[in-house]
Amino acid sequence: MKNTGVICEYNPFHNGHAKQLSQMRTLGGTVCLMSGNYVQRGEPAILDKHVRAAAAVACGADLVLELPVTCALRSAEGFAAGGVKILTKLGCVDALCFGCETGDRETLMQTAKLLLTEQFAQKLRSELASGVSFPCARQNALEDLGGDGDLLENPNDILAVEYCKAILRQGGTLTPLPILREGGYFDSLDEENPSAASLRALEDWARYVPQEARSLYDGAARFTIQSGERAWLARLRGMEEEDFARLPFGSEGLWRKLMHACREQATLEEIVAATKSKRYTRTRIMRMLLCAFLGITKELLEQEAHYVRVLALREEGQKILRAAREKGNLTILNAGETAPDSAYARLERRASDLYGLFSAAQTPSAPGAEERARAVPFKSET
Q1: Please, are residues 243 and 292 in contact by the beta-carbon 8 Å criterion?
Q2: Minimal CA–CA distance to 249: which of 225, 217, 222, 280?
């Protein structure tokens, strides 16, 4: 029996995710490495990580582990590399499954190989020197080497290539398993293949999520940027110059531009608008702002988390978890268990406590949720 992993956000878990898990289960066990309360776009997740993890196991996942926040808030390359490294260290995951617009493994792997060459690195530097944005520079450099630049236009394809790059760099122990993603990335409200971005803008998700997830979502608190914006702005307005200088993604003086925007603009949207440019994307600015709010410096973001946490599991997942712990390559903690790494544990608690300020409920969530948390068990009826 083989185990297949997926690096995910499930923000929220919907019918398309359920379809992917169903395909993965035909191969054997399923392990989800899921972003916690913050996602790669530099935003709080719309539902608490334990609710999203419970939805995943209720819909077929065997084991849900938390992707550390220092991996979740990296660039696409860092996000993929961090996730692949953890799944590889588990020692019991054979393949990495991901949805993408291309769905062709050979094309993705060939593109990844081109992106890892010195010729590509040279062409990329040349393109960046001309002043174009990183995505445009990357696409142009790839096309100059005879690659398919269109492959780097779609978000899921970009992440798929990054997964393949990470697998190649880390020794290739995981087999990439791309699945053709149906439906649009940003604006699809196809009931079978909705986009998570579209769902986040809706109040009623009933048509777009499995019944098992729907029952968990009913009554669950939602979390939004708007609800926590004043707290976020308070942190930004209290930062000193040296705090901005230590932020991730702030090279080439971007941190200084962001600092001035934070001191001149009234809202988060105005800060982003004043900082982003053809060269610096919105998501990069949002990740900088979220790292500022959470107190994550460049040095801290680059550090490896020495453990991962169990968020939810079913009976089959207990066997996978036991096998991973026997391998001994990675410390796996239960939710709420005391961490051996005090510095990273402090970051976990801080991130969890601050997440409560984004609650859309009239009263913010109380601090201390990380210590009170317990892994969500799920007992199959079969």
Answers
A1: yes
A2: 280
Q: Is residue 382 very low, low, confident or very high in pLDDT (cuts 50, 70, 90)?
A: very low
Helix (H, G, I), strand (E, B) or coil at 83: helix
**Could you tell me which residue, 136 or 242, shows the higher pLDDT?**
242
Whether pLDDT at 85 is above 70:
yes
Angle between helix axes 282-294 and 254-264 (nearest 10 degrees) is 70
pLDDT in tens, 24-58: 999 999 999 999 999 999 999 999 999 999 999 99
Cα dihedral 243/246/252/253 (nearest 10)? 10
307-314/38-39 β-pairing? unpaired
Across the strands, what pairs with 92?
A: none
pTM of the model: 0.94
Residue 5 is inside which H or E element, if any? strand 2-8
For 42, the 3-state DSSP assignment is coil
Q: Which of 32, 31, 36 is nearest to 72 (CA)?
A: 36
Q: What is the average per-residue pLDDT within 61-66? A: 97
* Three-state DSSP class for residue 19: helix
CA distances from 18 to 21, 63, 72, 78, 97 (A): 5, 14, 22, 26, 13
What's the CA gap between 195 and 163, in Å, rounded? 21
Q: What is the CA radius of gyration of the chain?
A: 20
Tell me how far CA of residue 275 lies from CA of 33, 44, 194, 288, in angstroms: 32, 20, 31, 11
Can you read off the two tokens belonging to residue 200?
């986040």
179 close to 97: Cβ distance less than 8 angstroms: yes
Cα separation of 56 and 209, whole Å? 11
Per-residue tokens: 37: 């309360």
User: H or E stretch including 45?
Assistant: none
Q: How far apart are CA 248 and CA 258, in angstroms?
A: 12
Query: Can you give the pLDDT at residue 376?
Result: 72
CB burial of 332-354 (b: ≥16 within 10 Å; e: otherwise) equals bbebebebeeeebbebbbbbbbb
| Spatial separation of the C-alpha atoms in residues 41 and 324, rounded to whole Å | 30
Q: Give the residue-averaged pLDDT of 118-137.
A: 89
Taken in order 341, 345, 348, 350, is the CA torsion positive or negative?
negative
Distance CA(331)–CA(315), nearest Å, equals 20
**What would the two tokens of residue 316 be?**
């089959």
